[in-house]
Amino acid sequence: MTTIDLSEYDVPGRGRGVLDVIRWRYLLGLLIRKSTALRYRNSALGWTWSYVKPLIQFFIYYWVMGFIFGMARGEVDNFPLYLFAGFIVVTFFNEAFGNATTAVVDNRALVKKIYLPRELFPISAVIGAFVHFLPQLAILIVVALVYGWVPGVAHFGAALLGLLIVALCALGLGLFFAGLNVRFRDAQNFVEVLRQLATWASPVLYTWVLIQEHMPAWFLYVYLMNPITIAVELFHFAFWEPSVGLDGWHGFPPHFELYTGGAIILCLIFLVIGQLTFRRFERTFAQDL
């Protein structure tokens, strides 16, 4: 009787989760290029929308908060730069989180026909959101230079750390809700509510100092447990602080370094729970779709 060594073969329909990204990186690249190419397909303006849409939202927020509520009249120095630095962070999170949530459902044709690591869909959605974030980052850099931005190593490090926190948070939550969304489409509606709250739950339209002055002490601590709040403050330090100097900067919130470490740990917890939940629902993706 001949014995066949099956150790080199994979069990059909099983993978290593997020770790499969390295093995299937070519397919991941194809998915990213596909989403990027289809985003503005048959659009006259094309990639220009990546600049136009966030700028329109920014001017609306700037008009309301800057002029109606007076933030631009001495409340915050260089308020347009402050606002835009935080705004694009939340925009990146919202797009990455939303696209990751619907990534499996949007690719139902592939899911039902062939096997491939399903985690590639949310991951490609987060990376695709980062690609569309780059034009907004370019605008931010130009605006910062106009305001006299002279960054140091610490400012670049803060920006990179902020992006890492946002990407991990969006991917972890995206995996969790992407798995739920295949079976329970209510998950997508719940995510839309979270995305609407994201802008107001972080110091984008206001400063954290207002939270400290007008809310109980315990509320500030809970507020700082939001990873997006930490990422926004890191971006403020990276792009806004060099333009106003130490006199105009309101400083980091109390114990900010501890909350930054906590935000990274929390994002990793999101990633683990999201992966486990995704794998739990992955078994019935084809049937549910």
Task: Describe the protein.
It is a multi-pass membrane protein. Residues 45-281 form the ABC transmembrane type-2 domain. This protein is mainly alpha-helical and 289 residues long. It has one domain (17-32, 47-288). It has 14 helices and no strands. The protein has helices spanning 20-23, 25-39, 49-68, 71-75, 79-106, 108-113, 120-146, 153-183, 186-198, 208-214, 217-223, 227-248, 256-282, 285-288. α2 crosses α7, α3 (49-68) crosses α5 (79-106) and α7 packs antiparallel against α8 (153-183). The longest helix is centred in the middle third of the chain and has 31 residues, at 153-183. The radius of gyration is 21 Å and the shape is globular. The termini are far apart.
Quick rundown:
With 289 residues, the chain is mainly α.
